[in-house]
Amino acid sequence: xxxxASGGGLVQAGGSLRLSCAASGxxxxxxxxxxxxxxxxxxxELVASMPDTGNTNYADSVKGRFTISRxxxxxxxxxxxxxxxxxxxxxxxxxxxxxxxxxxxxxxxQGTLVTxxx
Length: 118
Description:
Blueprint: E1 2-6, E2 9-12, E3 17-24, E4 28-38, E5 45-51, E6 57-58, E7 66-71, E8 76-81, E9 90-100, E10 103-108, E11 112-117
Parallel strand pairs: 2-11
Antiparallel strand pairs: 1-3, 3-8, 4-5, 4-9, 5-6, 7-8, 9-10, 9-11
C-alpha cells in the first residue's frame, strides 16, 4: 500500500492544522492507523493511533488537543491538531498496518512538516 500525506505547514501558536494520509492499493484491510512525529534531534514518537477496534490512543502531550479519525470509504486517516504549541513542531508521519493477501505489513508516509511559531 502507498501512503500520501499532506496538510503540514506553518501556523502560529494556538492555531490549527489538519493532516491527511491517503492509502492506495488493492485488496487490503486496516489493522491499525497512526500518526508519529519526529522533532529535530529527537526520536520518532507516537502521536495518535486508531486500531481497527475503533479505540483511539494519544500521547499525553497531545490529549485534548489532537483528534485522529478516518474515512473508510476514502482509505484516509486524519489528524486534527488544535491549540498547537511550538513544541508540536516536527515532521509528522502516518503509518498503517494492513492485512492483505501477502500477509500483514506496515507502511509509512513520506512525512509532512509542521512548524508552530511562538
